[in-house]
Amino acid sequence: MKIKTEKTSLLFKLSASRELSLFIVLSLICLLIQWWNSSFLTAKTIGDMLKNYSTTITLALGMMSVLLIGGIDISVSSTLAFSGMCASLMMRDAVYSSTLVMFIVSIVIGTCCGMIVGLVITKGDVIPIIATLGLSNIYRGATYIASDSAWVSAYQFQAGFKKFAQTGTLTFGLMNNLVFIALLCYVIFFVVMKWTRFGRRIYAVGSNPEAAAISGLRINRIKFTVYTMAGAFAGLVGAMYTALYASAQNDMGIGMELDVIAACVLGGVSLDGGQGTVLGVLLGALTMAVISKALPLIGISQFWQTAIKGAIILVAIIINVLAQRAMKQNALKAREI
Predict the structure, then answer these.
(1) Prediction pTM value
(2) How far apart are CA 116 and CA 132, in angstroms?
(3) Cα separation values, 315 from 12, 15, 258, Å
(4) What is the pLDDT of residues 117-162, one digit of tens each?
(5) What secondary structure does DSSP assign to 140-191, as a single string?
(6) Which one has a higher pLDDT value, 35 or 76?
(7) Domain 10-334 carries which CATH code?
(8) Contact predicate 51/179, CB 8 Å
């Protein structure tokens, strides 16, 4: 038996090195923007960009885990708002003053929201898009109810919390605190997805749920854990978002679910599940951050920015579909005798 590898298509080769291809594209985009605006590739601009988009970059990890099992969670932005608002209200009312406690409370609330999503999907047998759409509205409404439609302004936060997003105390000044949190999350998630049994099970459930069930994997338990994890990421980002803008608003995070889905798809995560890497998601999120930062620099209006982001999502999905089709065709050819 001779496996035919000589006729591997160019598209298949590119899809096999998706991260390298995306890195090249990202580099070309940065060079093009620098040519257009010489102030782009400076330490201050890059530092500000990473700080401002650290929330989207971090939230993309939660969305990645959900997409890997073949699901979707469009409630993450509402979970972000609800957890961040509730934690902020407690700090405003002097329930606590510690920045660490603020983050822990927000993560716990987000985790509880994610657990509810997981229960509705696994125990209620509701398809993810419907379950998360409904809960998204519930969590957003709960945010308005909890705050009585009011904001938590900067002067109502503790001084240490307001400084947290602008300093680098966690790394003794080497990098911004929010950027460090995002980087740490990616390192931990990379280890979990690549070298742990739990990570392999997530890929197995997304690749072939029937085969995973026959192999003895508890599919619903894994799905519940993944949605809970996505909620925890949303809770973490809720605290990061609040610290970044030194305020808690009822409409914070609106539309962020589209940005993180775009980052994941752009990074090579399949909407059918079972395919995608942490490095790819990081590059996809960085690409979205660069584009979002660059569009105002080159004079693109806010209305066109939204349209361009939508076009990016569409193109990324088309590329993913074509790449997966090429991979399947070449896998079939490889089995030919």
Answers:
(1) 0.89
(2) 10
(3) 17, 15, 14
(4) 999 999 999 999 999 999 999 999 999 999 998 999 988 999 999 8
(5) HHHHHHHHTT--B-GGGS-HHHHHHTT--GGGTTSS-HHHHHHHHHHHHHHH
(6) 76
(7) 1.10.3470
(8) yes
